[in-house]
Amino acid sequence: GDARVRGQTGVVSERRGSYPFIDFRLLNNTTLSGEIGTKKKVKRLLSFQRYFHASRLLRGIVPQASLYLLDEDYLGQARHMLSKVGMWDFDIFLFDRLTNGNSLVTLLCHLFNVHGLIHHFQLDMVTLHRFLVMVQEDYHSQNPYHNAVHAADVTQAMHCYLKEPKLANFLTPSDIMLGLLAAAAHDVDHPGVNQPFLIKTKHHLASLYQNVSVLENHHWRSTVGMLRESRLLAHLPKEVTEDIEQQLGSLILATDINRQNEFLIRLKSHLDNQDLRLEDAQDRHFMLQIALKCADICNPCRLWDLSKQWSERVCEEFYRQGDLEQKFELEISPLCNQQKDTIPSIQIGFMTYIVEPLFERWAQFTGDTPLSENMLNHLRRNKTKWRSLLHKQHSSSSRSSDHSGQVTGSQEQTLNEEETP
């Protein structure tokens, strides 16, 4: 069996800082099965949270994924879905149900096969599966949004982007593997709260990464730790694995939303100057960063039924953080106040200021392909739907205020401001 440490971050219970009493168990407390392992070196290299917990936690045998215990009919439906994995209307929620919660493992095994990566890199299927199970299990299923289903969704989107002719014609097997691995692991061990929350509660990860790209650094280091522990790439030359680890970091760190303008300005410059040379590894890597950023925030570009589910999930996660902040008398973060920040207003702002600028540039890069046009059409339709829902909320709020006769000038001004994000 494969013994592992099951440490989780997201637990702000260290006896340090201003909030030693807070124990944010937003995570999965899965009990390990099997016997206690031997005292061999067990910590995952570079993964701080595993290093931190290694001396306290018992070792155990990792249970194998239950994918192959499913009803044959479900497996048949899952296989049928995989035959259409490159379609933009792929329903990751349905696929996750059909695979009994193993969407990320199943999807990645399939995509590694489809892209010929197993043969090219001489990967061992059992080792690959074990590594992917480690990644999937290190996502926290209690998170409404930042969980393994989100990772699978981003990975499926990344697969679609890697097939865009403008990019696909230049990609090497190494580029493809990096893109898929970064997509799958880009949010691994996410605690369900954002960076400002970790900083103001003096979380050990904020101290470790000096308040800079705290979560993204942790996702990267955890991924490197799992790669090394699984020995998935141990048969490759050391310089190759070191390069893969560094490039994975560069890709995952690009998903930090605080760096959005940095990447947009650079992309705009390349497109305006028409100086992207995808024969150049550096330019290909930059476009892989852009592709991952697109995949990470592509929810508003999906079909309405899928997009709406993601919107509700991410806002639920925001609201949970706001509830925690309120409980511990911290200032409630932007977008996290359920009483003030409605789902429609959050989504309209997100689409207007973050999603649209990026996807319009992506469409410019790809050359207005069917996929890019499809995504922009969904984005515009979804924004119209959220505007309609926001208007209904305001109309309902106005009627109830009229009944009570208590609508104030400041409330009216707030409503008008929300109408114009």
From TrEMBL:
SMART domains: HDc (SM00471). Zn(2+) 1 binds at residues 150, 186-187, 296. Its EC number is 3.1.4.-. AMP binds at residues 146-150, 187, 296, 347. It comes from the Eukaryota. The active site is at 146 (proton donor). GO terms for biological process: signal transduction. It holds the Pfam family PDEase_I. Pathway: Purine metabolism; 3',5'-cyclic AMP degradation; AMP from 3',5'-cyclic AMP: step 1/1. Zn(2+) 2 binds at residue 187. Gene3D superfamilies: 3'5'-cyclic nucleotide phosphodiesterase, catalytic domain. Residues 391-421 are annotated as: Disordered. It catalyses: 3',5'-cyclic AMP + H2O = AMP + H(+). The keyword Metal-binding applies. Residues 70-393 form the PDEase domain. This is Phosphodiesterase.
